[in-house]
Design goal:
The chain is an alpha+beta fold and 357 residues long. The chain has two domains: 201 residues, no CATH class; 112 residues, Pathogenesis-related Protein p14a, CATH 3.40.33.10. Strands 1-3-4-2 form a four-stranded mixed β-sheet. A hairpin with a 2-residue loop joins strand 3 and strand 4. The two termini are 28 Å apart. The relative contact order is 0.11.
């Protein structure tokens, strides 16, 4: 099972670094030899300086910035060097981080912990069964303490993982530095996303958070959904992806399967949020006749829906989810066992969340 978890995590995240074969940059048909003699000498000196300062990431970054002044041929060569380094060191960091997370999870995942988690999940899920009788006060009194305790029991903190391995901090610093330096080269080369995929702090953090959340060994079905979401989320704005990940964390914590990210529901949600923002209304019923109901809006996006939540007042998705958690009707929608797919869309400070069977 642990091996399967590792495979799924790596499958979802190793695509963050493109293969060398897939990347083709000709630097406008030029190479280092096309430089003037003066620039060749300058480039040679800078490359030697770069090699000399292996342990000084800040100095290396300064050197790379100087290289960029010498044009695309130098930027291309430096990009290739950095890309190879990331390709070599990123899997090593992933392996070390995953192993450390697993060790931490095994240590924490005792019989008593599992029993406590099960009892807390039943307590939280029982709130939903109250239906229209559920109140905000009951969610605060019963749901909030249980959720807080579940977070403590189920989510492994980064400091716990890093405490297991003395190598991780240094490896992480190096990967982040390489990613930042690679980004400098990408900016100079003016590459499109299909030429060089983004790889930076955000992608590294996403890998770490996902791995930490899986370290206690969730059901295989949950892993498969999260793996699919990691592949799908490239076609959805990052703020909406983050909001859906946050919402799924609520579901996973209380023992429900995460929802599959549906870009069509994201589109329908985004359009409704945009309409609410621009038309100055706040309702599930749109004044635009052809978009009147959530079900019509889902159909226009090419899909179906069976529940909708709306929120206004904050541009952050986690704030919307937190508000819905405390609102009885929205709480029931968000934590429905029947919700299989989800989409979230934002415009300004308006959020829409749609679920599908």
């Amino acid at each position: 099972m642990l091996q399967r978890i590792t495979q799924l995590i790596l499958c979802a995240l190793t695509s963050l670094v493109v293969s060398t074969d897939a990347l083709s940059i000709d630097a406008q048909g030029k190479d280092i030899n096309s430089l003037s003699e003066r620039d060749k000498i300058r480039a040679s000196t800078l490359f030697k300086d770069y090699e000399k300062h292996k342990e000084n990431h800040r100095k290396r970054t300064e050197i790379i910035r100087q290289m960029m002044d010498l044009g695309r041929p130098v930027a291309k060569k430096m990009f290739d060097i950095l890309d190879r380094e990331i390709r070599k060191k990123w899997p090593l960091y992933q392996e070390e981080f995953t192993n450390s997370a697993k060790k931490t999870g095994i240590k924490k995942n005792t019989v008593n912990v599992r029993n406590e988690i099960a009892a807390l999940q039943i307590k939280v899920q029982s709130l939903r069964s109250m239906g229209k009788g559920l109140t905000k006060e009951q969610i605060i009194r019963t749901g909030d303490p249980a959720l807080k305790r579940l977070q403590k029991l189920k989510v492994i903190e980064m400091k716990e993982i890093f405490a297991v391995s003395s190598m991780l901090t240094k490896q992480r610093q190096e990967i982040i530095a390489l990613a930042g330096q690679r980004a400098i080269c990408i900016d100079r080369l003016v590459l499109r996303e299909d030429e060089a995929e983004t790889f930076g702090f955000k992608e590294i953090s996403a890998y770490e958070k996902l791995t930490a959340s899986l370290a206690l060994g969730p059901p295989l079905e949950h892993l498969q959904i999260l793996n699919l979401n990691a592949k799908i989320n490239r076609v959805v704005p990052p703020e909406e992806v983050a909001a859906i990940q946050d919402m799924n964390q609520y579901r996973i914590l209380i023992g429900l399967r995460p929802c599959l990210l549906d870009p069509r529901l994201c589109l329908a949600s985004r359009e409704h949020s945009k309409d609410m923002e621009e038309k100055k209304f706040f309702s599930h019923t749109s004044p635009i006749e052809r978009k009147k109901t959530p079900w019509i809006r889902a159909k226009l996006a090419g899909t179906t829906a069976n529940a909708e939540n709306i929120f206004k007042g904050n541009k952050e998705g986690h704030a919307a989810n937190r508000s819905w958690w405390h609102s009885p009707g929205h709480h029931i929608n968000m934590l429905s066992p029947n919700a299989k797919r989800v989409g979230m869309g934002v415009q300004g400070k308006h959020w829409t969340q749609m679920f599908g069977p």
